[in-house]
Amino acid sequence: MTDATAAASAVYLRVLGPSAATVGNKDVALGGPSARAVLARLAAAAGRVVSTDLLIDDLWAGQPPPKALSALQVHVSNLRRVLEPARAPRTPATVIVSAPPGYALRLPPESVDAWHFERLVVEGLHASDPPTRIALLSQALDLWRGVPYHECVDADWARIESERLTELHDTALETRAHAYLDDGKPALVVDELGRHATRNPGREHGVRLLALALYRTGRQADSLETLRRTRAYLADELGVDPSAELQGLERDILHQEPSLTMAPATPTNHAPAAQEIRWDEAPVTGRGEELDALRLAARQSAQEGLHLVWIGGDAGEGKSTLAQAFADEAAGSGWQVAWGRCPEVDGAPSGWPWLEVLRQFGDEDPGTPFEVGRRVEARLTAAGARTLIVLDDVHRADEPTLQVLRHLAATGRKSTSVLLCTFRPTEAAADLQATWAATAGIPGSRLTLRGLGREGAAAIARQSGVADVDDALLADLIDRTGGNPLFIREYSRLIASEGAAAIRTTVPDGVRDVLSRRISRLPEKTVVELRRAAVLGREADLAVLAAVGEIDDDALLDSLEPALLTGIIVEPSPDRVRFSHDLTRETLYDSVPRMRRRRMHASALSALAAHSPTDSAALAHHAVESATPTTAADALRYVRAGARDAESQASYREALALWKSAESLCEMTIEPDPGELVEVLIPRVGVQARTGDVIGARETYRRAIRIAQERHDPDALLRALVSWDAPVVWTIRVEPDVDTFVLDAIDGAAGRDSLTASDRARLLSARVFELEGIDDESSLAAAREARRVARESGDNRALMRALNAFGYIAFGPDLADERITNAEELLAAARAEGDEGFVSVAYFQRFLAATAGTDFELAYHHAELATRHAAGHQLTQMLGVVAVFEAMVELMAGRLESAEHRFTAISTAMHEQGVASAQWIATIGRLGVGVARGDLSALAGELGVIESMRPQAIRFPLILALLDGGDVPAATQLWASSTPYPRDYYWLGMTTFRARAAARLGDVKVARQTYEELLPFASRIAGLDSGSLYAGPVDAALGDVAELLGDDDAAARWRAAASDLVKLVSERLRERESTAPR
Predict the structure, then answer these.
(1) What region does 17 belong to: left with phi over 0, alpha with psi -120 to 50, or beta?
(2) Every domain of the chain and the residues it spans
(3) 3-class DSSP state for residue 570?
(4) Which PROSITE patterns match (predicted)?
């Protein structure tokens, strides 16, 4: 392709209707009316040269202005600039070319709609067979957008060309209609020529075709009326009779001549129906490449082990249909196949998809998510078994479902199986994104489904009962649906029921409107039962549905049969029905008025209580939705039970939602009872904390304590004070200072004589987290006592809490020798209780112990285990911990720019997640990089900001930054009011900074003190206790102090040792490639 051809092919000009142009598929502004007229006049010449004299005469209607030629040249120049924006200066134009004695438009025929239209019409008129004639004329008619040369039609040249093209359009329309008749499709002729004949009653050929089509579709009276209307027009307007051909047709219709019926009459109200096309029976269409990718994953799993495949796409894109087609193939090849569907509405048991999977394998519900995971793992890894598990709509998955998925991905790697998950990308929440991160190392692939093309759309339309899918209808379908298979199918079913005019003349605004119209065609009794089913959820038990409607089974089945035949619902099993798509359920549900909906939920609650009394999640959902001030108190018991069951299954987000609903019910009751409210708030604290809402949990915690105090209820107060039973990784205080309200309440309750050992241990653990980082001595004493008392109590949960508290304090320097044994004891207790959250914390404590000892292989191992056992917000938290550690590893390996980039990226991601300490992560990363480079001066500004907000928190690195920048007076001033750093997880790093600052400022007293404090930590890298801070080798600080104290030999030895340590660590880390989860 030449440059000129390429430039011309990028331009598309429209004159059939308002003038417009695109360049490279982008609309361009053609300028004012005169410039647009120049372009239109050249287009009307169909590529021939138009002289400048004729152009001027036509543009100004014979009365040109004095400088008409100059004005014409300006218009041409501007148009060339618009149509060829990439043309180099001084190169000839290739679209509007100069050709003596004027200009010509040089474009391919298909680049000007009028030229393309005329060529297609001519080809269509000469086509020998009706299908080809129809196809070509349809393409031509699709280009028609209105009156040709609309803006210039008052000019003679434009009017003549416009009339010629209009005549060509009418001829094309009538010729296609004739071809439809020849092809036995009179209904399409009626649809097309009805308006045409009304607008053009004098076009006798078109009127004849319409009358004949009406007759062939069984509308003899309408056919005669059409002919009589034309007869009247010809007589009144022209004073002539109809042609002999038209008069003969009228006589033949009156006598019902057999020759008129060349094809069977097909009444338009009996168009081919869609009801025999079932959604679940329709083959996968237009997804050949994606199906091949799934087949490849199946083959690869035989050699490489477990494959994890993600299929993403918006609602209706065909994710489930594609998965079903693949599952059918797998089952036909001897695979064992099971499906788990994540519920669309509240009220399903925790981990529901995996319970469905196990039932299909013939297993019973094993109880905990951990045991569920083990059962499914056994199926995946069984000798000789090839298994496909499909998890549908995992964007709605709860925490236990995702936790089992991660467990299988980690433990089932050697199985020759495939895990296939479908999801909507726009609804992928943080939990699912964390799961993607945690399973990033598993072999697999991700497919994203887009809209179907013409071939796929046409196939679905035919499957849905549309007999004749012409190009115009196909274009409308794709335009209205964006190629979405579900939307195409629903529109097609509507067309099959109402005819092609349903989309061309009365197009609904959206697929919900289409669904509403399809539903409205069902019998009223069917719609009533569908609405009741919609209240029950995506899938409904027939016995429960019958109980809700208070009808017998036969009557229910009779009512549902039309919905089954039309594919609105399907039968996954003999005793259940399921909506073919949740949009259908939502449309039905939303059509029920709120007051009636509440009553229907009440009926559902009553029916479920009788038929499924153990289904606590569903009972709680309907209790909330049906509650009124008079029923709220009774509904509360269902909601509490549902929340407790959700919590026992580790579905903390679902549990929190139910506890919040329970609070609303307490406030809804006719006489609100603070006693009821505090019993709702107490269990909510731990659940809220486990979801990551520490600020909200703290507020709930303080509310529960306050209400219990106001009610003078010591038992409720005790339970409120020890209600924070979630695993703790970061501080649970919102403010840096002591919360005296909480601490005083804890100390007051601790003085009660009636406390059990378990209660006392829990109170002491709570005291630890109120004092950590503020009062080292008191928090350490409370941690030791809490662990001792908890061991004596025999209460495993109290012991987990105490070991968590002790391990948290052990991040500091004073309990370093007990970190590993404490973590192992916590691990054993957590496993005994089946609490994966505390199992994760135990491995996290082991991770920190390994990093402190620079055993990075072991640190990676424990980090992976901590991540594997985490769920929900804790998983996000653990992935963040590992990401920070990875960045620190890059730093210690000497890849400083990479490390700084990683810290910044982590900070940005945490900021987007709303983490309060996000900015601190970026700062701490730059601080470590500055330490490695030996210059902190660039950090003085941002460290100063932190110092102004949190005095002493970052004081010693700030002093070093000021000294590196030469601001000795400011550094000296800050040093004078500095205090030792608290003995927490940052103590070793900050004390190392303090020692170096003392050495540089010549403070011998502090230098000697820090020397003695740091000596036990020689040969260590400071800051690694925290898992996030790099403060350099402790030995380097010892060398600086030794030099200040006059021991040059010791200073040299310490600095050599520091250099050797940095080199050793760097070389070790450069040799290994990270395998930790990211």
Answers:
(1) left
(2) 1-177, 185-258, 455-510
(3) strand
(4) OMPR_PHOB
Closest CA to 878 of 831, 924, 843: 843
DSSP, collapsed to helix, strand or coil, labels residue 282 as coil
Which neighbouring-strand residues pair with 23?
11, 26
Sheet with 20-23, strands from edge to edge, namely 11-14, 20-23, 26-28
Instruction: Specify the amino acid at residue 726.
Output: A
Residue 479 tokens, joined: 């335009």
Determine the angle formed by the axes of helices 856-869 and 399-411, rounding to 10 degrees: 140
Question: What's the pLDDT at 817?
Answer: 84
The stretch 871-899 carries a mean pLDDT of: 87
CB 673 within 8 A of CB 711: no
- Give the tokens for residue 320: 């489930």
Fill in the DSSP letter of residue 589: H
List of residues 6+ apart from 1060 with CB closer than 8 A? none
CB atoms within 10 A of CB 25: 7
Return all residues near 932 (Cβ < 8 A) that are at least 6 apart. Answer: 891, 894, 896, 1030, 1032
For residue 278 the two structure tokens come to 């079932």
Question: Rounded CA gap, 488 and 481, in Å?
Answer: 6
Alpha-carbon gap, residue 164 to 449, rounded angstroms: 45
At residue 503, the pLDDT reads 66
Q: Using 50, 70 and 90 to split pLDDT, how confident is the model at 634? A: very high
- Cross-strand partners of 446: 310
- Report in angstroms the alpha-carbon separations of 1051 from 1032, 1041, 1045, 1048, 1054: 16, 8, 9, 5, 5
What is the end-to-end Cα distance of the chain in Å, rounded? 48
| Rounded distance between C-alpha atoms, residue 192 and residue 41, angstroms | 32
Q: In 799-808, which positions are buried (b, 16+ CB within 10 angstroms) versus exposed (e)?
A: bbbbbbbbbb
Check for a shared fold between 1-177 and 185-258: no
Provide the residue type at 500 as one letter. Answer: A
For residue 228, what are the contacts with CB-CB under 8 A and spacing of at least 6? none
| Dist. CA 923–CA 938, nearest whole Å | 11
User: Confidence class of residue 276 from pLDDT cuts 50, 70 and 90?
Assistant: very low
Q: Which of 875, 765, 779, 772 lies closest to 826 in space, CA to CA?
A: 765
Q: What pLDDT score was predicted for residue 211?
A: 80
- Beta strands 418-423 and 387-392 are parallel
Nearest to residue 425, comparing CAs of 392, 395, 389, 465?
395
Sheet holding 569-573, edge to edge: 539-541, 576-579, 569-573
The CATH class for the domain spanning 1-177 reads mainly alpha
The single residue listed with the structure tokens 């936790």 is: 403
- DSSP class per residue in 329-344: HHHHTT-EEEEEE--S
| 650 torsion bin: left (phi>0), alpha (psi -120 to 50), beta (else) | left
- List Cβ neighbours of 776 (8 Å cut-off, separation of 6 or more): 812, 814, 982, 983, 984
Architecture of the 185-258 domain: Alpha Horseshoe (1.25)
Instruction: Kindly state the percentage of the chain with pLDDT values over 70.
Output: 92
